[in-house]
Amino acid sequence: MKRYYILGAGGLGRELCHWLKDAHAECAGFIDDNPHALARYTGYPAVIGDTDSCPLDLPILCGIGQNTVRQGCVARLQERGATFASFIHPLAKVLPCTLGEGAVVAPLAYIGADAVIGDFLFIQTGAVIGHDVQAGAFLRMDTTAFLGGFSAVGDGVTLHTGAKVMPGKKVGDGCTIGAGSVVISNLRAGSTVFGVPAQRL
C-alpha cells in the first residue's frame, strides 16, 4: 500500500485523506504549521510537524487550496528537498495529457485530450479542463469550474465554484475568477472578476 504525507490538515487535506483510501493508499500523517489543526476531529493520522521540521521520508501530496499559502508552503518544503507526488482519484477521467508535478485530481473531475498543465494542479469534484487547454503552475479549480477547449491560463489562477472560462480565452497570471462567473473575454494578469459576463472588480 502506498503511503503519503499530506500537506495541510484543513478541509481539503482531510478530504484528500479519504480519497486515498479509495485508491488503496493511505495518509501517514499531516504536515501543518498549526500543531492543533486536527483538535476538533477524530479518526485522522496525526500532524507530524510543520513545513520546517516535518520528516521527508515519504512523498507528499499537497492538500492546501488557497493559492498563495500553497505556493509558500510548497516552496519551503522544496528548499528542504521534499519529494511531491501526484494523485488522480480512480473515479476521475483523465485523457492523454501532460500534467506537472504535484497534481491532485478529485473524484469525477475531467481533463480532456492533449491538455498541458503545469505543476501543482488542484481540480475539485466535477470540474472540467477541456481539450488542448494550456495552463501554468498552481491552477486551482473548485467544484464544477470549467476551462473550455484551447483556453490558456497563466500561473496561480483560481476558478471558484462554478466559474467558467469560454473556449479559446486567455487568462493572465494570478487571476481570480469568482464563483459562478463566466469569462467571455481575455483577462490581464492579476485580475479579479465576478459576474455573468465576468467584470473586473
Q: In words, what does this structure look like?
A:
The protein has helices at about 10-20, 65-80; strands spanning about 1-5, 25-30, 45-50, 60, 85-90, 95, 100, 105, 110, 115, 120-125, 130, 135, 140, 145, 150-155, 160, 165, 170, 175, 180-185, 190-195, 200. The chain has about 200 residues and is α/β, with parallel strands linked by helices. The protein folds into 2 domains: about 1-85, 3-Layer(aba) Sandwich (Rossmann fold); about 85-190, Hexapeptide repeat proteins (UDP N-Acetylglucosamine Acyltransferase, domain 1), CATH 2.160.10. The strands form 4 sheets. The chain has an 8-stranded mixed sheet with strand order 5-8-11-14-17-20-22-23, with no helix packed on it. A 6-stranded parallel sheet has the order 6-9-12-15-18-21, with no helix packed on it. A 5-stranded parallel sheet has the order 7-10-13-16-19, with no helix packed on it. It is globular. The mean pLDDT is about 95.
What is the topology?
Elements: E1 2-7, H1 11-22, E2 25-31, E3 47-49, E4 60-62, H2 67-79, E5 87-88, E6 93-94, E7 98-99, E8 104-105, E9 110-111, E10 116-117, E11 122-123, E12 128-129, E13 134-135, E14 140-141, E15 146-147, E16 152-153, E17 158-159, E18 164-165, E19 170-171, E20 176-177, E21 182-183, E22 192-194, E23 199-200
Parallel strand pairs: 1-2, 1-4, 2-3, 5-8, 6-9, 7-10, 8-11, 9-12, 10-13, 11-14, 12-15, 13-16, 14-17, 15-18, 16-19, 17-20, 18-21, 20-22
Antiparallel strand pairs: 22-23
